[in-house]
Amino acid sequence: MKSPLDNDLNKVYESFNQNHNHLREKLMASLPHSPKHHKQAGRISHLLAFTGETIMRNKITKLAAAAVIIIAVILGINYIGGSPDGTSVAWANITRRLNDVDHVHFYEVENHENSFPSIREGWYAHGQLRSRSCGGYGSYGGYQSFDNGKTYKIFDRHNNVTAIGKSDLSKHKTFFEAITEGILSLDFSQFNNKTPEFVSSDFLIYDFEPPTRESGWIEKISVTVGRNSLMPIQIKTYFKIEKWYCVSHLLLFDYEEPEKPLEFFEPPTETKPPHGVGRVILGGDPVEIEVNNSPGIKKAIVRLHEKFDGPAKDLLIPYRERYEITGGPIYFMEMTFIIDEGYRSITAKRCPLWPNQGVKAALGGDNWPDGKHRNVRYTPVLKATDKDNEFILELSCWLRTKYQF
Amino acid sequence: MTTPSDKTLIRAVIAGENEAYEKLYDRYAPLVRAVCYDMTGNLADAQDLAQDVFMRAYEKLGHLRDPDRFGKWLVGIARLRCKEWQRQRLRSQNKNIGLNDAQAVAPDPPDDSRVELLREMITTLPEKERLALHAFYLQNSSADNARKVLGLSRSGFYRVLERARKRLERLLTEKGDFR
C-alpha cells in the first residue's frame, strides 16, 4: 500500500507530464530526418539557409548585413594592399588600454530567431552602470537598470523595483570585462598573444574562439578595435543555434558622448500610479482587483497565503540571491488574471513578494482557450498597513500579444 | 510484449527510424523536465529547456558510447543546458531583457498546498537525492530503471531514495505539514 507521502509525490510528478503529447509532436516535427552525424552536409546547408533567412527577414539585421558586406569589401581591399604593421598588435595591448577607460556610452543589440531584436542603451561612469532597454519589449519596453558597483536593481515602467542582485561590475576589474563577462580580460591568458585576423588602415579585427566554459553556446567572438586608439568599436558574438535565445549579439561603443554626472546614476525614487489596488489579508480569501488603464486586462484575483522568514536554502533557487541581499520576511500569493475577452489565465501559485518592492513576473503564453498568444507581465508591490496581517497590494500589469524576449 | 530497451531504440534512431526517438522521449522527457525544473523553478521554462535537451541529444546520439546509459547521459546534457540557461538569464536580467515567455514565477497546478510545498522542498534536497526521487517517481516507481539514471546498484539506489524520503518527511514535519 502506498503511503500518503507516495501519493503526494505522485501528484507532484504528474505535473511534469503536462502537455506531454503536444510537446512530443512539436519536437518530432522539428527534428531533421535523421541525426546530425548522418546528415552533416544537409545540416550545414540547413543552418546557412536558416541564418540567411533570419538576417534578411528583419530590417535591422538586413541593414547590418549590408554594412558587414561593405566593411568586408573595404577590409578585403585593405587587407590585400594594407600595411603589415598592425598585424603584430597583440590583444594584451588592447586589454591594458581598457584599464584607463573611465566612462563609456554603448548600445547592445540582440537578434532572436522568432522575435524583434532587443536593444539596450547604457552608460558607464563613476564605477556605476545605468541602462535602459527598448525595442525587444515593444509596448512593454522602458525597463531600466542601475548598478552601483555592489548591487544592481531593475525598475519597470512604473519605476517599481522588480529585481535585485549582486553587481556584475563587482565581479570584474573593469567595465569591459564585466560587459563581456570576462572575455576582455588580461586573465584570459590564451587570448593575450593573439594578433588580429584582419588589418585595415582604420581597424584591427580579432577573432576569438570562446573560452571552454562558454563553448557550449558561443561560436565565435569578433572584436573590432580602432587601429590608432586601440579601443573596441564593436564586439560581435556569434551564438550556436539557440532556439529560444539570441542568434547574435552586438555591442557598439561610443566614446564621443561626454561623461554623465553622478546624479544620472541615481535610481528613480518616485513610482507611477499602479493599474490596480486591493487590500489583502494573509491567509484570507481571494480578492478581486479591478485593473484600469491597462489595455486588454480586466481584473486580477489574488490570495496572500504564506509568510516566509526561513533560511534562503529553503527557497527556490531563482529567489535565493535576492532574499540573501534583502532578508525576510517575504510573502507568497496566488495570482490569476482575467482579460477583456473574459478568459482566465493560469494561476501562479506561489508568486514571491518582497515588502515595498516589486517582482518581475509573467503569466500565460499560448495556452488560452482561443489559442492566441498572450503574456501578462506584472509587478505586484505589497505595502504594509497598521495591521500585522493586512496589506495593500499595488499592481502594475501589461498585456503582450506578440512573442518577444 | 516486452518493452524495447534504450539500446534497441537508439540503434533504431541511428538507423533513421525517428519513431524510436518518440519512445525515448516518452520514457525520459518528464525526468528531464524535472531536472530542469530544479534549476528554473518554473514549469514553462523547464519544458522549453527539456525540448532543447532532446534536440541536442538527438544531434549527438552518435557520440553516445554506452547506449545503456542513455538516461544518465541525457541528465548530464540537461544539467549543462540548465547551467547555460542560468548564465544567460543572469546576463539578460542585468541587461533588462530577461523575461522568458510565460515565465510565471510559480509552477502551474496541482492545486494543493501540500503538494506545492512538497515540490518546493524537493528542490532544496541534495542533488543525488533529488535525482533519485525524480527517476523513481517518473519511471513508474521502478528502481531498476531509476538506478541506471544515477549509475547506482539496486541497494545503493534504495539507500539514496530512502534518505531523500526521510529528509522530506522531516521537512514536512518542521513546516507543520500544511500551510
Brief account:
Chain A is α+β, with helices and mostly antiparallel strands and 405 residues long. Chain A has 8 helices and 19 strands. Mean pLDDT of chain A is 78; it is low at 36-84 and 135-140.
Q: What attributes characterize this protein structure?
A:
heterodimer; A: alpha+beta; outer membrane lipoprotein receptor (LolB), chain A; Tick-borne Encephalitis virus Glycoprotein, domain 1; 2 domains; 11-stranded antiparallel beta sheet; 19 strands; 22% helix; globular; B: mainly alpha; Rna Polymerase Sigma Factor, Chain: A; Arc Repressor Mutant, subunit A
Task: Please explain how this structure is put together.
The complex is a heterodimer of chains A (405) and B (179). Chain A has 405 residues and is of the alpha+beta class. In chain A, 22% of the residues lie in helices and 33% in strands. Chain A folds into two domains: 205 residues, Lipoprotein localisation LolA/LolB/LppX (outer membrane lipoprotein receptor (LolB), chain A), CATH 2.50.20; 125 residues, Sandwich (Tick-borne Encephalitis virus Glycoprotein, domain 1), CATH 2.60.98. In chain A, the strands form three sheets. An eleven-stranded antiparallel sheet of chain A has the order 6-5-4-3-2-1-11-10-9-8-7. A four-stranded antiparallel sheet of chain A has the order 12-19-18-17, with no helix packed on it. A four-stranded antiparallel sheet of chain A has the order 13-14-15-16, with no helix packed on it. In chain A, strand 9 and strand 10 form a beta hairpin. In chain A, helix 3 packs across helix 4. Chain A is globular and about 75 Å long. The two termini of chain A are 48 Å apart. Chain B folds into two domains: 107 residues, RNA polymerase sigma factor, region 2, helix turn helix motif (Rna Polymerase Sigma Factor, Chain: A, Orthogonal Bundle), CATH 1.10.1740; 71 residues, Arc Repressor Mutant, subunit A, CATH 1.10.10.10. In chain B, helix 2 packs across helix 3 and helix 2 packs across helix 4. At the A-B interface, helix 1, helix 2, strand 3, strand 4 and helix 8 of A face helix 2, helix 3, helix 4, helix 5 and helix 6 of B.
